[in-house]
Amino acid sequence: MSFNKTFGSMLIIAGTTIGAGMLALPLASAGLGFTTS
């Protein structure tokens, strides 16, 4: 039972990190585009 909880929490943390990266990447690349042009 504790393995399932640990694995589930790892997946939640990984999903949150990937989601935050997907949101942050376009903002970072847009900032780079504005500064270089």
From TrEMBL:
One function term, GO molecular function aspect: aromatic amino acid transmembrane transporter activity
Keyword hit for Ion transport = no
Q: Does the keyword Cytoplasm apply?
A: no
Give the matching InterPro entries: Amino_acid_transport_2, Trp/try_permease_CS, Trp_tyr_transpt
Q: Name one GO biological process term.
A: amino acid transmembrane transport
- Give a Gene Ontology cellular component term annotated to this protein: plasma membrane
The entry's localization annotation reads: Cell inner membrane
For this protein, the record's Pfam families field holds: Trp_Tyr_perm
Keywords tagged on the record:
Amino-acid transport, Cell inner membrane, Cell membrane, Membrane, Transmembrane, Transmembrane helix, Transport
Q: How does it sit in the membrane?
A: Multi-pass membrane protein
| UniProt-recorded name of the protein | Tyrosine transporter TyrP
